[in-house]
Amino acid sequence: MKEIILNFPKQFKVGFRAAQNINIKPKLKKVCICGMGGSALPANLLAMVLEEYKEKLSLTIQRDYTLPSSVDRQTLIVCISYSGNTEETISCTKEALKRKLKIVLISSDGQLEKLAKRYSLPFVRIEKGYPPRMALGYLFGALIGILNALKFIPASLKKELIELEGTLKPEQLEKEGKSLATKLKGRVPVIYASNRLKYLARIWKIKFNENTKIPAFWNYFPELNHNEMTGFEQGNHKLLSINNKLYLILLQDRDDHPRNKKRMELTLRVLKKRNIKGEIVKLKGKTFLERVFNSILLSDWVSYYLAKAYGVDPIPVKMVEEFKKLMKTK
Question: Is the pTM of the predicted complex or chain greater than 0.70?
Answer without folding.
Answer: yes
